[in-house]
């Protein structure tokens, strides 16, 4: 890629790990378009980051409008060099009580929409001669976690899709990688863990570094894989987890 300002799309870029990734990209001079559902969060992020950051409000679970969304972004800004598929939802419920609708909703948002937006962006990246896609997985794809069956299924599928995409697309200059965050200190995880001391103890007990990660830790990994620092890296799942996935 040449020296023009790089362009990135970050889904779910207005909060949590997506926001940290957007911040890192902006600091490195990458023009970043964040896509999300919550307009107030999007506006707040765009104001915080200034002119390199712009947003599109869109619910990616509605895959029918994704081709139009990507076409509009490309018409205005050009072909993205980087796509970070970070948007996702979780659903905590006992396996036997999860309905078909609940299961489908998580798969639709966490997997089908990632496929759909990647497909549209890849069409343009192929014409442009290259690009980089980073998917976001989870510890739920590294080992079994109870009460999150749909989430676990979606994130395990994301890792398989990462490898399949990388194998098919890398010969054409598109690298595809994945980051698997461990337990990171965000508002969402704090709420979940503070209300569940047993789970919190379990998390800390099997994390060799003995602490939660920070959103910036994940952002650094995404930035590495997204940019030319990782120009000979494709198809990997990089755990950013304080050793959680190998801990006992």
UniProtKB/TrEMBL annotation:
Pfam families in UniProt: adh_short_C2
Gene3D superfamilies: NAD(P)-binding Rossmann-like Domain (3.40.50.720)
Domain of life where this protein originates: Bacteria
SUPFAM superfamilies hit by this protein: NAD(P)-binding Rossmann-fold domains
CDD domains: SDR_c (cd05233)
GO molecular function: oxidoreductase activity, acting on the CH-OH group of donors, NAD or NADP as acceptor
Family: Belongs to the short-chain dehydrogenases/reductases (SDR) family.
Protein name (record): NAD(P)-dependent dehydrogenase, short-chain alcohol dehydrogenase family
């Amino acid at each position: 890629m040449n020296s023009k300002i790089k362009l990135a799309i970050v889904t779910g870029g207005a909060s949590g790990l997506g926001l940290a990734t957007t911040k890192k990209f902006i600091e490195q001079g990458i023009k970043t378009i964040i896509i999300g559902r919550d307009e107030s969060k999007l506006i707040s992020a765009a104001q915080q980051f200034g002119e390199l950051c712009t947003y599109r409000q869109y619910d990616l679970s509605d895959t029918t409008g994704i081709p139009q969304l990507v076409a509009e972004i490309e018409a205005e800004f050009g072909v993205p060099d980087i796509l970070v598929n970070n948007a996702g939802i979780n659903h905590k419920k006992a396996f036997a009580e999860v309905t078909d609708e609940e299961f489908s909703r998580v798969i639709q948002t966490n997997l089908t929409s990632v496929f759909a937006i990647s497909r549209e962006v890849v069409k343009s990246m192929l014409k442009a001669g290259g690009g980089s896609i980073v998917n976001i997985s989870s510890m739920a794809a590294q080992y079994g976690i109870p009460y999150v069956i749909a989430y676990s299924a979606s994130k395990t599928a994301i890792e398989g899709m990462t490898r399949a995409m990388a194998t098919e697309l890398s010969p054409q200059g598109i690298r595809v990688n994945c980051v698997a965050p461990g337990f990171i200190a965000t508002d969402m995880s704090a709420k979940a863990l503070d209300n569940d001391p047993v789970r919190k103890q379990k998390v800390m007990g099997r994390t060799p570094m003995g602490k939660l990660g920070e959103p910036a830790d994940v952002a650094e990994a995404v930035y590495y894989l997204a940019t030319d620092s990782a120009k000979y890296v494709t198809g990997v799942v990089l755990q950013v987890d304080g050793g959680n996935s190998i801990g006992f």
